[in-house]
Amino acid sequence: MAQSSGQQEIVKLPEMSSEEIEHLLSSQKICRMALNDRPQPYIIALDYIYDDGEMYFHFADYGRKMDLIKNDPHVSVEVDDFCAEVPNFSTITLMGELVKVTSKAEKERAARDLRDTAEQRGGAKNVAARHGFTDLDMETLTSRRSAVYRLEARDYVALKSPGR
Q1: Distances (CA, A) of 68 to 19, 50, 117
Q2: What is the CATH topology of the domain spanning 18-102+144-160?
Q3: Largest CA distance in the chain
Q4: Which percentage of the chain shows pLDDT scores above 90?
Q5: pLDDT, tens digit, 9 for 90 and up, residues 135-161
Q6: Distances (CA, A) of 31 to 22, 55, 65
Q7: What phi and psi values does residue 36 have, to the nearest 5 degrees?
Q8: Which range has the worst mean pLDDT, 1-15, 89-103, 143-157?
Q9: Cis omega before residue 14 (within 30°)?
Q10: Residue 121 in 3-state DSSP?
C-alpha cells in the first residue's frame, strides 16, 4: 500500500552491537550523568574510566553532586560519539546505580587509570580542577577527600545512525 502524500515513514534507529558498545565506551573519556534532583534532574559532564567492562567515576567527596548521590544513587549516564557530519553518531545511555568503591586496590586502580588517561591527553590540570584539586596525584586521588564510584548498570539503550 502506498503512503499518502506528505507523510514520511518512521525509521527506527539501529541498535549497536556488543562490539560497538565496547568500542564506544572504551574510546570516549567524557560522559554526562543525570542525578536525581527535584523538580528536575541535575546533569553534569565528567571524566570516566572504562576498565574491564566496568565504568568508574572519581569525585571530590563534597558538594551538591555528592549530596545527590548519597541521597539517591540511581543515575543515567550518556556517552556518545557525535561527528561533525550530523548523520554519523552513536550513543549509549546506561541506567543504574552508583556504588562507592571501598576496596583500596580497586580505588587505586581506577584513580591511576584516570590520572594516566588525563596525562596522555595533556589535560591533567583541567581534570584536577574539575575534581576540586590543584594536582592529579595518587595521594590526593586516593585520599578520604576523594571518592570513586562504579556504575552498576541495570539497563541501557545503545543506538547509532542508520548509515553507521
Answers
A1: 33, 23, 27
A2: Pnp Oxidase; Chain A (2.30.110)
A3: 68
A4: 48
A5: 767 777 777 778 899 999 999 999 998
A6: 15, 11, 15
A7: -75, 120
A8: 1-15
A9: no
A10: coil
